[in-house]
Amino acid sequence: MMEFGVKSFKGFVSEAATAFSRAVQYTEEKLGTSEKTELDAHFESLAQRADKTKLWTERIVSRTDAVLQPNPNAKVEDYLFEKLERKRDRHTNFEALGQDMIDAGLDFGPGTAYGSTLIKVGQAQQKLGKAEKEFVRSAGTSFIQPLRKFLEGDMKTLQKERRILESKRLDLDACKNRLRKAKSMEAQANTKPDLIQREIQQAEQELRLAQSEYDRQAEITKLLLEGVSSAHANHLRCLNDFVEAQMSYFTQCQQYEADLQREMSSMSVALSSSGTTDSFQNIYPSFSANAGPTSTAPDDKRKQARVLYDYDAHDKSELSLLADEVIHVTLEPGQDPDWMIGERGKQKGKVPTAYLEMLN
């Protein structure tokens, strides 16, 4: 136990002496009273490129993160859930807006012009929200995560090795100063020659060791600095992936908006020509064409439709619906085109056409 304590104390003293020596050397260099070992121009160029890479990668990651999630409070919540290793499905603003529009449309009535239009616009907003969510996920996976991993991994290791190199450089220059001072004392006539020779020999030995450690650390650091080139190549691939994800996102959004605009334009023409909501079947060609209100052929009456949203029946004449289920529907001659007759097994009742996607 005593031996362990003595060793620990000696190690502490040695580390303290080394730290003090480095501090003295650093101070003398700043004051201009001591020389500093300079790295070669190629090494300095590599180091400058590494510093630029670290600076701009950190800034780009931060800016991209702000674009993908501009809400600071949401960022904090996502960070906490990530640390707790819990997943959460956050609705985007588009999705929330779409749901409110759909709920409003249901409240006003899917059979009215305003209610039906609110539902269609709300559906488009939800599509935009899902596209945005996919873009955020894709950009985070293919762009932000690799860059952040580089900063927290390779770059952090490189910075650590550069700090070690600087410590080795201070040790080397401190040894050079000790040897220089010992040799200057040798020229003094009143100094003991044997003592000075021992001092010079010890300083030379320490200098050789310090030089060896410095050279080895410089080589290690240089290899890591040269590896920044491969990091740039990887970041370029990530940047291409980011642009592709962004292009896909904007293409989807443009398509959704174009489809919605066409439907809104058709609605405007229909309302202008009729002045009523009775001809609303002309506003959405997909419903009127699939339903075929004027068809009387028995084989054309019964069709399949997929339910887009949950629907609770308001009375016994209506049929409750569950999203994504497939039912059989029929549009009888003279029936309101905003409603169809739905069948699920032995259950039968009216269902809103706006809630359906015709399959045949």
Structure description:
- Residues 28-273 form the BAR domain.
- This is Endophilin-B2-like isoform X1.
- Belongs to the endophilin family.
- Residues 148-220 form a coiled coil.
- Keywords: Coiled coil, SH3 domain.
- The chain starts with a helix and ends with a strand.
- It has 360 residues and is α+β, with helices and mostly antiparallel strands.
- A 5-stranded antiparallel beta sheet has the order 4-3-2-1-5.
- The chain has 2 domains: 17-29 and 39-248, Up-down Bundle (Substrate Binding Domain Of Dnak, Chain:A, Domain 2); 284-358, SH3 Domains (SH3 type barrels), CATH 2.30.30.
- Helix 1 (2-31) packs across helix 5 and helix 4 (93-108) packs antiparallel against helix 5 (113-186).
- The model is unreliable at 274-299 (pLDDT under 50).
- A hairpin with a 2-residue loop joins strand 3 and strand 4.
- The chain has 9 helices and 5 strands.
